[in-house]
Amino acid sequence: MATVFEACIVDTKFLDLVDKVAEKFLKRENGDRVNVVHHNDADGICSASILKALLESLGCEYELICIEKVYPAIVEKIHESRDGIFIYTDLGGLAADMIEKYTKTVSFIIDHHPAKPIESEKVYILDPELAGISGDVFVSASTLNYIFAKRINPDISKYAYIAVLGAVGDYHDRYGGVLGFDRCVLDEAIEFGQVKVKFEGAKERYYIEAFDDFADNIAPKLTTLGACGYLERGYEDAVHVCFNGFNERILKRVKRLEELREKKFKEAIDYLKNGGLQKTKHIQWFDLKDMFNPMGVKAVGEFCELIKDMTFMDMDKYIIGFQWIPPLVPDVGEIDWKGSKVSGRVPTQLGRTILHGKALGLDYLIPKASEMVGGFADATHRLAAAAVVDVGKERDFVEAMERLIEDETAKNS
User: Fold this and answer.
1) What angle (nearest 5°) sits at the alpha carbon of residue 133, between those of residues 364 and 49?
2) Is 60 exceeded by the pLDDT of residue 7?
3) How would CATH label the architecture of 265-412?
């Protein structure tokens, strides 16, 4: 069977980009210490795990730094007290200019979300979107890190199953099975005896031999550890699980966090039904403030996903949720900034309209609206996107987004 690289060559521009970034990384001009800054969901955790395996194979000293969002105060804090090389993964694609501002050495961004290109001697981006390949459909962050890592060390193929876990955790199997480069890595995992495919109707499920379980059962537990357990560093257990599987202690932790999330989400639904849900002409929105504490801010995105098609929601309005960002970032320390996480989702009905090109996607609306109120967007897709704004700017953000929609509607009328 062809390797992942041979099987997936449809445009050499992407693989040329992989080579360029890998070659620059291998020079290690700033020493052997590497700081890996990663997201806290299953895809970000699997990405960090693959990079961990690569760095250990190269004999590098490294630190895994788990963050929820990219914004100036946290990027500055990360760089001011650390030397060596920095790798941002599963985030940072839209933040290259900001990261360059605080980079004293060299930073790499390995992300699959829409990205802004940058010409810099300090920041290098590996992102399929810059080669015209959808990171929302064909390349998860875990797959991207697997391709990057295997380009440097072919022995990384023993961890192909981790990339499959990350792709499933990021819902890249939502069309019945993983596609594109994700599919190529799946094929390698099957070839190496790490994964088996089971068909259930029109949908594939991926049985991971090392776990004796299916990827769609494992990946949500990784996200639970990383997101609901963020402030208690549950992501460290999630990285451990990628290599060693679950043990009784970690499974108990997952269960406790799942129960916490269920309780908090029920309270939030009651809050929305009792006046907490506000509406404009095109948007339905809510501000949870610290209602989800002690869960991380990934929770508001998961909550938006849960409620998007519930009967009390309008099927033709965008959904925007806000959650305060805790000032303490476990791997970084106290951040002197009061921020609010913005999460956007769309009901299924509106999602179809967006996919048919008849309504604006969140990948346009959320970055533009956040820019209008002095915020920062990252990790954006058409049907799901996120940003951060100053606490107190929540209503301003909604009004800015409403103006963008109105302007587009007037233009097309």
Assistant:
1) 95
2) no
3) Roll (3.10)
